[in-house]
Amino acid sequence: MPKLYELCGAETDRLFSAYAWRVRLTLGYKGIAFDSQPLPFTAIPGAVLPDYARVPVFVDGDETVVESFDICHYLEARHPDTPTVFGGEGGVQNAALIDNLIVTGLYPTISRMIIKDIHDQLAAADQAYFRASREERFGATLEDVQRGRDKERTRFATFLKPYRRRLEAAPYLGGERLLFADIALCASLCWARATSPYDILGGDALMDEWFWRTLDACHGRAALKRA
Amino acid sequence: MPKLYELCGAETDRLFSAYAWRVRLTLGYKGIAFDSQPLPFTAIPGAVLPDYARVPVFVDGDETVVESFDICHYLEARHPDTPTVFGGEGGVQNAALIDNLIVTGLYPTISRMIIKDIHDQLAAADQAYFRASREERFGATLEDVQRGRDKERTRFATFLKPYRRRLEAAPYLGGERLLFADIALCASLCWARATSPYDILGGDALMDEWFWRTLDACHGRAALKRA
């Protein structure tokens, strides 16, 4: 059975890497069985590949694939008999652009809303690594970054508008069926919801319903341990 | 021959509606001949359809189609033997999301950089309409809005990053061949370049080269009267 190396907190069933969730959701949507290999932050470097310090890593027999987008693309090519998450070659190309737009436009904002809460979900050794690396990145303490999250949530709602507008017209960003855009955005909410009680959607019922619809279509609800 | 109703300035060959440009570029890319019907702002209401005051309008025999995205989709369905701008059904769905992201994320910023320059390209009656309607929308004079454009250009460069990152890896946003995302973004630059001498790309050679590559692939260069 293929193995998915993903990220966990102090509890090994608290899975919270947005990028690993993309693969997990894609696997669930396609109905592909896999073994989860949860790793805390400090156990990741070199765990699967020498000099590689990120998740997800997907090991499928002799094949080892990294980068969430590339793993999803690999799964699509390898399992042509399963439901598509790209919808053809034009879909793959567009998804690569949407991937950039989501990662650049949404992930940093989400991060600032939950950064201290993520820290609190980690074991002691991982907390030390996380605080040092993230505080260097932000140039501020985790507490100071997260303190501004109500304002950040307003910005997030603005950034979500184009996605929301699409969901006013169709059940999924992909239209009648979900596509990679749904998976990428849903995965980012899994990251937030596994680590933080803060409602980054600010009670937006339409977005919340879409989130659960997508998670369920990917059989992901059981694996989401909410904070 | 089908007719494309589009927007012009005081000179009828100064075509500058970003939405009409999307259709024009799609027609050019697909090699579909059409008659241009340029209209200044104040001639648009009711020109083709009663109570309809927007361009583009595409009249193809008995069919009249409005909304740029829908016209492009219509052309794709009607001319299956021409190069695709969507790349299949997944591509159509993703393109609808990308359309929202471009319109929401980029168009308002472009608008603020060129709004007074657009005004200056119009005939007197259209200038009066344009100033009144846009100043109400912005809650500021055209001059005041445009005055902040250097700062706006910095924001624009940030918004462009996810697109730019894609173009660092491939000749088009659509990968090896252009897709609707290329057309929608290229069309917005046609809008700016037909109306304003201000370089909204701030000398970004990679983006500029992509612009001309896309425009030429759509046989659009001859129709772009630069300000």
List keywords for this structure.
four-stranded mixed beta sheet; globular; alpha+beta; homodimer; 227 residues
Structural notes for this entry:
Two copies of one chain form a homodimer. Helix content of chain A is 55%, strand content 8%. By secondary structure, chain A is α+β, with helices and mostly antiparallel strands. The model of chain A has no long low-confidence stretch (mean pLDDT 97). The first copy, chain A, is built from nine helices and four strands, in the order E-H-E-E-E-H-H-H-H-H-H-H-H. In chain A, helix 1 (18-30) packs across helix 8, helix 3 runs parallel beside helix 8 and helix 4 (107-120) packs across helix 7. Chain A binds chain B through residues 84, 86-98, 100-101, 103-105, 161-163, 165-166, 173-175, 179, 181, and chain B through 84, 86-98, 100-101, 103-105, 161-163, 165-166, 173-175, 179, 181.
